[in-house]
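pinned: reference chain
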Amino acid sequence: MATVTFYEKPGCINNTRQKRLLAAAGHQVIAKNILTENWQAERLRIFFGALAVRNWFNYSAPAIKNGEIDADNLTEQEALVLMLKNPLLIRRPLMQVGNRFMAGFDQEIVNNWIGLKEIETNQDLENCPRPLTQPNCGHE
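pinned: its structure tokens
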């Protein structure tokens, strides 16, 4: 069993499902609000490890869906500056177990990292299933 610090957007359907999978596997989940956390560039950067900059982003964020931000053409520094200004851009969840960090919820990677009791193969747990126009959809 691991203690997982889990940075989420409260109300996000997928973050709720992800936390349930972690808890079902016996992990203790300490949920924190990714939007109100006092992020610093250096601290945020460690969650992304060797991921390409484009994979640091939440593609359900309105600024990306509306074409205001092109995540394919940003440097690390530009990406971090944008994310500090608008935490909705950060790929969710961010997870920490001890001195290990992760962005996103690839079930196979999480299973290999800390273990999952079951894997939901029929559901996309990374992309928001709700349209941008739905009120309180977790995009805002």
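why pinned: Residues 51 and 103 are 9 Å apart (CA to CA). Residues 134-140 have pLDDT under 50 and may be disordered.
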